[in-house]
Amino acid sequence: MKAVKRLYDRGDEWARGLSRGRYAAVLGASAGSGLLAVGLALSGDLLLVRALTMALVMFGLEYAFGAFSGSGGG
After folding, report:
1. How buried is 55 (Cβ within 10 angstroms: 0-12 exposed, 13-18 middle, 19+ buried)?
2. Per-residue confidence (pLDDT) for residue 74, from 0 to 100
């Protein structure tokens, strides 16, 4: 369990050091990838379109408003 906590802390520290644009890109890519992976597991229709849409929406929202970034934008 400690190894998982250390891995989470390292990832969190890395993400907080990213610029606003890079953080938004990472968030969008991870959201799109997650949706694609779950969709492949459940075999949904128009999967690629949904994944790309989710990635673009998450990128746009994060870049515009910076709601999830711990660095306060930048």
Report:
1. buried
2. 47
